[in-house]
Design brief:
Blueprint (H helix, E strand, L loop, with lengths): L1 H21 L2 E12 L4 E7 L4 E9 L2 E12 L3 E23 L6 E27 L2 E27 L5 E7 L11 E14 L2 E9 L3 E3 L9 E3 L2 E10 L9
Antiparallel strand pairs: 1-4, 1-13, 2-3, 3-5, 4-5, 5-6, 6-7, 7-8, 7-9, 9-10, 10-13, 11-12
């Protein structure tokens, strides 16, 4: 009992010194940003056995993100952050093929359009290091983000255009969250971030989030399931309210 009392007494003695040296700085902020799931891309190739030409293109949705952020700085350089975010994400894909009908003769084009859109709630936590170059502060951090998918929408259109007979057209629209082979509503991502602080209360960040791809389809018996790339590239702006805790008067 005596040793425990002595330990508590020692902690009480050194706590003020630790607090003064650590100089903790805690603040809240409002975050807004724009995200894409991956950079746009386009690839063309030829199927030599059929002399068919194919073009595949991918366009991400430029989507908004809004959030509330809490940030703690200790020892002037070590940053610990957490946030509550709402994010919209998605993509647009187009497959185009020029080919020859080997059975009936003539040429045809085959187009497939796929659009995906999701709404999710995100809870990121990170740790990082803050440093100064000249008169401007920067930071680099890494962390973990938990995502909960609120809604999902998948739309596809398949069009085959023949030159010598009737066209073929199919359309599909469903939620990947409600399909037979559905995506998980909870998932996680790892991320890295770099930030600049042009003003004391303003933070501009670029973050890359990466997670495993999500596979789904309308039927669990499908031979060609769909997928969604579970990545995010985020450019965000955070405006911090004046320090309300641990700040010096």
């Amino acid at each position: 009992m005596k040793s425990n009392t002595e330990l508590i007494f020692i902690i009480l003695l050194i706590s003020p010194a630790f607090y003064s040296h650590a100089q903790p700085d805690f603040r809240f902020g409002m975050e807004a940003g724009l995200t894409i799931s991956q950079p746009p891309s386009k690839v063309s190739y030829t199927i030599k056995t059929r002399k068919a030409t194919v073009t595949e293109s991918f366009k991400p949705l430029i989507s908004p993100l809004f959030g509330l952020t809490a940030q703690l700085t200790v020892f002037k350089h070590f940053l610990f952050s957490s946030a509550f975010q709402y994010q919209l994400t998605g993509s647009k894909e187009h497959y185009h093929r020029n080919d020859t009908d080997m059975l009936y003769g003539g040429n045809y084009t085959h187009d497939i359009w796929k659009n995906q859109q999701y709404q999710k709630i995100c809870l990121p936590v990170s740790a990082g290091y803050k440093f100064r170059i000249s008169k401007i502060y920067f930071s680099a951090s890494a962390g973990f983000r938990l995502n909960y998918f609120l809604t999902g929408k998948f739309y596809s259109k398949n069009l085959v255009d023949y030159t010598n007979k009737a066209d073929y057209l199919t359309e599909q629209s469903y939620s990947p969250l409600d399909s037979d082979w559905s995506i998980k509503q909870f998932d996680n991502q790892l991320f890295g971030s770099i930030s600049v602080f042009p003003k004391q209360n303003l933070q501009i960040s670029f973050s890359i989030f990466s997670g495993s791809s999500k596979t789904f389809d309308l039927s669990s018996l499908s031979c060609t399931p769909e997928s969604f790339v579970n990545n995010d590239y985020l450019l965000s702006f955070t405006w911090y309210i004046k320090n309300t805790l641990f700040s010096k008067k």
